[in-house]
Amino acid sequence: MTKDEAKLAYGLVGLYCVLYKETYNKTAVVNRYREKWAMQDVIDSVGYDRCKELLEYYFNMNKVGHPLTWFFYNFEKLDFTLKQVQEDKTRRELIRARTKTMVEERDNEY
Amino acid sequence: MNTESAVITSICNNKDISTVLADNIDEVFTSHKDVWDGLKSYYLKFKAVPDISVLTDKFKDFEPAHVKGETAYYLDQLKNEYLASRIRNLLLASGASLKTEASSRIISQMQSELTSLGKLTANVRDVDLTDYKSAQKHFEAVRTRSDAMGGSPGIMTGFKAIDYAYPTGMAPGHLIVMIGWPGKGKTWFSSYLACKAWEQGFKPMIISLEMTPENMRDRIYTMLGSGLFKSSDFARGSIDIKQFDDWGSKKFLDKNGFILVSNEGSGQVTPTTVQAKIDQHKPDLVILDYHQLFADSNNSKAPTERNMNISREFKMLAMRNNIPVIDITAATAEETSDHDSPPMLSQVAWSKAIEYDADMAIAVHKNPDSNIMEIVSRKNRHGTEFGMYLDWDLNRGIVSEVYDVPIT
Fold first, then answer.
1. Nearest residue of B to residue A75, measured between CA atoms
2. Looking at this predicted complex, what is its ipTM?
3. Calpha distance A21→B177 (Å, rounded)
4. Chain A partners within 8 Å of B342 (Cβ)
């Protein structure tokens, strides 16, 4: 792991700690040195930006305690679900725009 | 004359085994089961109905009956005899069980048994599409119904987005599934549809296994009041009785009934119970709140099996009674799902059943800390997809349709 890579991984472990603090109002107990290796694996798999998104999405879920290890074991599932959620959001926006046009057109007919 | 023998002889004479095969009722053959199995296997192997002599040669005990009528006639007789015998046995067994078992358990067993017998009484209906004269009559009947009901053969929802995209309205036989995360406005939205139906002159019936009838009644009053009353005031009992009396005497004068049914949290409610309530009240629209709290007629224990059975039975209720049925369903989140947007069908455990049974699936999602509720179609068998926001003051019962509200 290069210094730059380690910096990114440390940064995301730090983000986890911030999100944890915001959610539970207490400091997460994390061995940053050890967890950076696992975080690096996640970054290698999905990229830095996506990993950040996944961490933020993780804290939107109702998972009790939001353990970091759970995130490492399930980030691929999270990635799949988040992809579905984002696609659905786009789809709903499109449907809403179409519905608006339909209602306006029908209202103008009468 | 033995009726089973009469059916088998008639099939061999008339060569119309399909009449019996279509009904899939092997169980009605008991004394002549071996002959029937033999006849069936001959047909499946050689694609032809054998002469009666083939059967008499193979089954020495078999005595052909002297028949003159159609196979369907003898089959109908056989079904009647079989049903009568099963019902007689069921009543005798239930009567004997009364000495040792709890009545509730006996009722449950009887319901399960009667449901299994139901398939012998159900009829399928065929339509010959080359019979266009019959189709013309059907179209005329639909048009007459639409004219009488304000432009749609079903009940309008009162929301333009839905009514334009769902031109049939909530029509007879339709199963409409309302999906949402727990506590995100499914019951409010469905109750509002019931209010709209009632205001159009229909008679809705809400079967709520979640709320007391009084709670549900207060919600309905809030919505019907359209800003006149606050839900919170009803809950506290702090309303102006004179004003309420004036409003009630005008609002409910010469109107259809609006039925609320609750089990008050005790006792199982199955589709058979719902059928009994439909028979009692004759509603035009039924709302079932909510799916997971109902039991199926077979009293299945496995949740997925039970929910799939209930879904199918609700659809059959809608079709049998020729009324629309709204099935309120809580989405069951997977471990990796958040609850921040309307659920997708894939987030419902028995989504396959919904895909098969529902005519319409609507996802409802109330955003926390705001009056904004998102409505989006997840399936619409009779029209196009639709989506909108509702700006809904739940406490005062005021609602309006909007399309451009940014989610905060």
1. B336
2. 0.76
3. 40
4. 92
